[in-house]
Amino acid sequence: MPNTLDTNAPDRLAATLALDEPVGRVRLVSPGRARALDALGIRTVRDLATHFPRRYIDLSRKATVAAARIGEQCTIEGTVHEIKLKRPKPRLSLVEVSLVDSTGLLMVTCFRQPWLMDQVRAGMRIAVAGKLEFNFGFKRMTNPYLEVLDGEGAAEGMIIPVHPACEKISAAWMRRLVGNALGATAGLYDPLPLELRAKYRLMSRSAALACIHFPHAMDEVAEARRRLVYEELLLLELMLMRESRERSDGRVAVRHVTDGQHVAALAAAVPFQLTDEQVRAKDDILASLAAPQTANHLLLGDVGTGKTVVAAFALAAAADTGTQALLMAPT
């Protein structure tokens, strides 16, 4: 996939959507589907393009009915022999599917999913993924993930992405909508320059989105996630650097005295030896206070690890410099 807009392709340019446009601009997203997506927190093209799968079903690792082990999670592919809607109680519905392969019969029970009667029919190929049980003489699955392998919207390839869905938008439809969003945004630029991607062996953003949504192998998912996580952390770091620069606003901060009498007296008065981690944290904070830039530190540690004594050295440096300091202790 290209990483920059092709200005010589006006038709494709016109069809390219900006990431912050309403999700209703994506092909096949009707007003009703837009409302259903909104309930999932998906309101923009960006939201849909980054609506990542919660898991994957690898059909290359599927088991047969006969070979599948009781009590284990597995994926079984077969043909629907029969499907029935039952109502054992007035407000309880269940769909019972008889799934057969060349080795045997699997009974699949799906509670409170009556819409499956409109999606699954006898003779269809489906895959189910869940925990295998044995009851009443048959191997069974209860409320497994069910994927139709025939017809419109069927998954392609051996790895099926399972996107978070809802009653009004099935997993298959969600997959189609995500694919349309990716197709409509493939021409947008990549925020990571080619030199940086080459240095760290990162795939392009468009390739990462394609691989995390529609992988051909699970290795692609790991590489796609590595690229997207790198971008997220890099942008966060750049944002923090910009905020730090804006806070300083060209002003020179007070350079604190970090080797004065109060700091020395505190070091002598501490009734225990500081740990290596405490010493490093203290030295880092004092070095920042001595610099002409505004200091900004967040000290993290479990209860009892000695954060307060480290903070006390900053107070002592303020006292030696003649500036004010405040210690808030909510506990």
Characterization of this structure:
The protein is of the alpha+beta class and 331 residues long. Among the domains are: 17-54 and 164-185, 5' to 3' exonuclease, C-terminal subdomain (DNA polymerase, domain 1), CATH 1.10.150; 56-161, OB fold (Dihydrolipoamide Acetyltransferase, E2P) (Beta Barrel); 261-321. The chain contains eleven helices and nine strands. The chain has a seven-stranded mixed sheet. A two-stranded antiparallel ribbon has the order 1-9. Helix 7 crosses helix 8 (218-248). It is elongated and about 85 Å long. The two termini are 55 Å apart. Mean pLDDT is 89; it is low at 1-14. It comes from Eggerthella sinensis. It holds the Pfam family RecG_wedge. One of its GO terms (biological process) is DNA repair. Keywords: ATP-binding, Helicase, Hydrolase, Nucleotide-binding. This is ATP-dependent DNA helicase RecG.
Low-confidence stretches: 1-14
CATH architecture classification name of the domain at 56-161:
Beta Barrel
Highest-level CATH class of the domain at 56-161: Mainly Beta
- What does the largest sheet look like? 7 strands, mixed
Structural class: alpha+beta
Give the overall shape.
elongated
CATH superfamily placement of the domain at 56-161: Nucleic acid-binding proteins
Radius of gyration: 29 Å
